[in-house]
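Reviewers of the previous submission asked for a worked example of the structure-prediction workflow described in the proposal, so we include one complete record here. The input consisted solely of the amino acid sequence. No template or homolog information was supplied to the procedure at any stage.
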Amino acid sequence: MKSIFRSPWAWVPTLYFAEGIPYVAVMTISLILYKQLGLGNADITFYTSWLYLPWVIKPLWSPLVDLLRTKRWWITAMQLLVGASLGGVAFTIPTDFWLQGTLCFFWLMAFSSATHDIAADGFYMLALDEHDQSVFVGIRSTFYRFANIFGQGVLIMIAGFMQSRFGLDVPLSWSLMFYGTCAMFILLWLWHSSVLPRPADKQQQKATENDKSIISLLKDFLTKFPVRETVIGILFMLLYRMPEGLLVKVSALFLVDSSANGGLALTTEEYGLVQGTVGVIGLTIGGILGGVCAGMGGLRKWLWPMVCAITLPDAVYIYLSYCLPDNFLIINTCVFVEQFGYGFGFTAYMLYLIYYSRGEYKTSHYAICTAFMALSMMIPGLFAGDLQETVGYQNFFLIVMACCTVTFLVASLVKIDPEFGKKKQ
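From that input alone, the workflow returned the following structure tokens.
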């Protein structure tokens, strides 16, 4: 029994499940919560898009995680803070200051989650040798996806179930759901406090990259390629997902908005099934297929099919907004198609971040790339809800499709080594 607890199987799956839950709570569950509490679309997208900020500025304090304390300490401390944040959200939902209170705790959760991401990924590389890192890379991704399904699907469905089956009012049902999630996270904290190994921290990994300041690393990042290639690379990181940055928050609100407002009027339970289960499954399958295809032919060969995949399926929301089908199978199919396309097309984006990060400081440069990735979703989201309220759902989704030309434009400018991404013989 003792050897089982020392095995990576005891902590890798639960660690990455714990990494996914707060991100889903901040980015997705908050949307449906605020919609049911009566907040307007413009306010919802504006407030929740600012919650991307901790992931945008994450590289600024990542050296502190390496230099202060051990990564094991950071993991358990941040999990305790996430649990406290979930409890804080639950406590403030039924109060008169529910907006200020929940946003405060969502901010705390976002910063704790971003810090947890830094520590968990570093701990993974520190506690496992290269062989085990390769073996468990698929496991960590799978359980992070499970967290997405559990958060977007099961947790939202639980809140809806308490409303429809037990007649609880909206604030109480969401409060109880968050209290339950808080209890689950406290259990995860207790578990990881016991089973996480205590590897020698290799002097907190103060080598090479961490000896350099963030300013020096950023300078290296901006000067590693010629100016034109650097500008194109940053534009690609910021604009490739621009249509999805507009779509992702408004599409969720569209699914649950009333028919009088032009939405599909799905119940909370139905939304949990459509977006949190069917949608995430489509996203996962698309991502897996994208990785397989890129491995066979390389990123350059599959770039344009992936560009088409991440943009063209957005048209399903034009169909849904004009036809407003009440057939649940049709709605599920449309969401699956859009999410499958996004998963397949997103592979090109992630591979490009890896491609751009190659070199001596690839870990730190990749962290800077992911900051641009978070910024690419934050900026469109800030005004997406306001734009939708101004033009309506139908015209908003037409605008999203028009913005897909930006994705095609930046994709046409990037230069990629034909051999990058191909599986080595």
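Residues 223 and 230 are 8 Å apart (CA to CA). We consider this example representative of the routine output the project will generate in years two and three.
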